[in-house]
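Technical appendix A lists one of the benchmark inputs used to test multi-chain prediction within the project. The record comprises two sequence entries:
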Amino acid sequence: SQQGEEDPQALSIQEGENATMNCSYKTSINNLQWYRQNSGRGLVHLILIRSNEREKHSGRLRVTLDTSKKSSSLLITASRAADTASYFCATGRVQGAQKLVFGQGTRLTINP
Amino acid sequence: DARVTQTPRHKVTEMGQEVTMRCQPILGHNTVFWYRQTMMQGLELLAYFRNRAPLDDSGMPKDRFSAEMPDATLATLKIQPSEPRDSAVYFCASGLVQGAGNSPLHFGNGTRLTVT
């Protein structure tokens, strides 16, 4: 069963613009992770944020977490063509945190 | 650069045949996951292991699917008999979990299964 729901399902922007993707979830979590998937490949871990954290940065990535709203956002700044991929959020629940449940993903297209 | 290795990358088989997918997790990782990805259902968790012991296989159709870890370097997912609805990409992922916490997962590049 899906826990996280990404929004939007698809996003198309121009190179250089910022891309924002959102994730909502239903149950209490221990952590939330974002992954990227290029076509025909496995998922690649981007960033992990714990339930007691509100914001985390990694290079051009910024993740926020609002546990009161059960939502997270992933911001990619100064997008590049190479950022074209699907992005997934995954939640680890309080009980059994290592069991990650993935959302349906956001398909991001960066136009040159 | 350590990586999760899955074989085969592609498998085409006829309905009713047995299919075995293999995964070599990253050395030192203590958790192994099997996910199935389809357009309709997205990523579904089939089973996962910690220290080679199965912790949860509730996402797996028990009558035809089985997952094992014969040793720390090999995880297998078997389907017998296979059906067309099993067509999907099957991913293996491994991670290092300490205590009740969590860790990033490292994914293989998947096995694309087509059952005709």
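The interface with chain A takes residues 4, 31, 33, 35, 42-43, 45, 48, 50, 55-56, 91, 93, 95, 97, 100-110 of chain B (CB under 8 Å). The longest strand of chain B covers residues 42-50. Comparable benchmark entries are summarised in Table A2.
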